[in-house]
Amino acid sequence: MYVATKGGEKAIDAAHAWLAAERRGNPDVPELSIAQIREQMALAVNRVMAEGSLYDRDLAALAIKQARGDLIEAVFLIRAYRTTLPRFGASAPVETGAMALTRRISATFKDVPGGQVLGPTFDYTHRLLDFALMAEGEAPLAPQDPAPQDTAPHVLGLLDRDGLMEPLPDGAEVPPDLTREPLEMPANRALRLQALARGDEGFVLGMAYSTQRGYGRTHAFVGELRIGTVMVEMEIPELGFSVEIGEVELTECETVNQFTGSKTEPPQFTRGYGLVLGQSERKAISMSLVDRALRWAELGEENTGAPAQDSEFVLYHCDNIQATGFLEHIKLPHYVDFQSELELIRRLRRDAGHMQEAAE
Fold it and tell me: How far is Cα 222 from Cα 233, in angstroms, rounded to an integer?
């Protein structure tokens, strides 16, 4: 773990004061409130919660404000704060089939039980700047129908019913906890999914994109993408049953992938899976593509050498906090190290000069 070095206290204090002034910006412009960030920058808040592994919208909004909009710095703040929190226990697995839906689409079936729900999405916008948003005062919003709250069965159940989809694991094994134990190889699927869920969205997106461009053996369809809220339950030993302790918003993606079968399995479809805190469908889809690419060994497929099939490469490099710490530590003082390198280069040049003179 790389930490900042102390030195030049007055200079550091002045840098902190300057940072605070830059964070505030022009004092003639009204200051952003936590509520404004939470409500109007919801997708940034969701990303910070997901990659910070802490579901708290207000704290994520505070971190974004403190970090001047630098989302990786905000994730770092949330992760650091998370380590100070006591742990009371573990919740029961959430039931995404009982999700109160705000968005639910399938690219594999047009008509699905429960229907397709477009929800709030950029998919059908024209990507043109809306200069009306720069105008003083907002136009009144048109009345909106309340978001759908109906639950719906998983779409892949249609393929399950016909025996065309690989069976789900029984889930009896307790998964390891990446937030409490360091990542070790080889990593099982549960651990890989945890690492991807809190991995950097851009990195996971790049890995997913590489599988679509031919650096992998996957050709995926989005079987279902759903966004909504689920109840979180916790087992209370004194009571002997679980109680609801709150709700969280999740984005879940299941992809359908081709599989030719093996000596023990008939030809069938296989799954890629992604589950992310908050509304983050790009991340969930990317996660499901990379998940499927990493499953080549357990499915008896060939390793084509694609980066997304290399679990060590993907999992050791997807965490943006580790990457940031390692990258940014090189801007801290390395005077002693550099002086030794400098002296080495000078000695080698002197030796080379002496050898050239001797040769002449």
Answer: 29
Residue of 46, 124, 114, 110 lying closest to 78 (CA atoms): 46
Q: Give the C-alpha separation, 293 to 313, whole Å.
A: 13
Please write the tens of the pLDDT for every residue from 97-124. 889 899 998 988 888 888 888 888 888 8
Domain limits of the chain?
9-82, 96-120+146-318, 329-359
Q: What is the CA radius of gyration of the chain?
A: 25
Contact 109, 154 (CB under 8 A): no
Amino acid at 307: P
Q: pTM for this one? A: 0.85
The helix/strand/coil state of 160 is helix
| Residue closest to 183 by CA, chosen among 316, 327, 322 | 316
Give tens-digit pLDDT for 11-59: 888 888 888 887 888 888 888 999 999 999 999 999 999 999 999 999 9
Can you read off the two tokens belonging to residue 86? 């006591």
